[in-house]
Amino acid sequence: METRDHHHPSSNELILQQYSQAPPPGKNNSNNSSSNKRRFTDDQIRLLESIFESETKLEPRKKLQVARELGLQPRQVSIWFQNRRARLKSKQMEKDYVTLRDNYDKLVSRFEMLKEEKQCFISQMEKLSEMLAESETNGVNNKVSKVGSTEHEAEPGSSFKQEDDGVLGLEPRKVIEKLKMQ
């Protein structure tokens, strides 16, 4: 009686055996037995795919049944399902990455557009502030000359000066400074 160490191939070896390339046409590779290099047939793959659509993980009893139907070892069925789940997860991660990248690109674009818009508003505020300062100066001079003609002088801090000093109670320069800080 001959005793042999039985080599139990690792799952990686089984995967390589199942999915290894067939020898190029016209070459006979007698060193490798066809059972070690066998690929799944189209019918086997079709059936495995249809089962995978309804259940991505097989119970042991179902795995044995599928293996018998297809003429495969239960371990082959198990490894096929494991690889198929890994491919599915990988494809989903790729889709998620593309979606996240698109969203990121849109956000960056929107952010840049908002920065430009903010700069335009600051520029407009500065121009309006200058125009307001000019009109206040001209307005105060006109009011002072009118009041002066009736022998009243405008005192610094008089009521009309306080009312005209800002837009909605805010000084234009402070509004601009606040906008620049944001």
TrEMBL record:
UniProt key word Transcription regulation: yes
Region (Disordered) location: 1-40, 134-168
Alphabetic keyword roster: Coiled coil, DNA-binding, Homeobox, Nucleus, Transcription, Transcription regulation
Single GO BP term: positive regulation of DNA-templated transcription
Domain of life from the UniProt record: Eukaryota
Residue range(s) of DNA binding per entry: 33-92
Annotated localization: Nucleus
Cellular component, GO annotation: nucleus
Every Homeobox domain range: 31-91
Coiled-coil annotated spans: 83-117
Single Gene Ontology MF annotation: DNA-binding transcription factor activity, RNA polymerase II-specific
Ranges of compositional bias, category Basic and acidic residues: 1-10
Polar residues: compositionally biased ranges: 11-21, 135-148
InterPro entries, A to Z: HD (IPR001356), HDZip_class_I_plant (IPR045224), Homeobox_CS (IPR017970), Homeodomain-like_sf (IPR009057), HTH_motif (IPR000047), Leu_zip_homeo (IPR003106)
Pfam families linked: HALZ, Homeodomain
Stated family: Belongs to the HD-ZIP homeobox family. Class I subfamily.
Role: Probable transcription activator that may act as growth regulators in response to water deficit.
Name of the protein in its database record: Homeobox-leucine zipper protein
Gene source species: Gossypium tomentosum (Hawaiian cotton)
